[in-house]
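Suppose you are handed a protein chain with no further information: no name, no annotation, nothing but its sequence. What can you learn? This example shows the usual starting point.
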Amino acid sequence: MKYFFLSEGWTVARVWGTQGLWNINAWRRQPDIERLDLCLVEQGERLWLYRVESAVLMVEVCPQANEARESSIKHVMLKRLMDAEQVIARLCTSSVICQFNSPQN
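A reasonable first move is to predict its three-dimensional structure. Written in structure tokens, the prediction is:
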């Protein structure tokens, strides 16, 4: 597994795998990308932890529609995804918040 932190209000756009730009038809599925219930808080900004499958090499992220109007940055390429040890080291040096989702009745 690989990981990255993504600022609240941003979303995943395109994904690159071991064979180039992720092709849903070739892989027959979307890439496995999941936002976990853990975030860092730095200077009042929440950075959510995402988990991606090992086949993912690079992720393009961009602000969501309402954030895009306020930001001069249109997209960012994440080329160095983190391993579990790097995530733990980062969490140990930051203010961390866990969000627990209560089960639906």
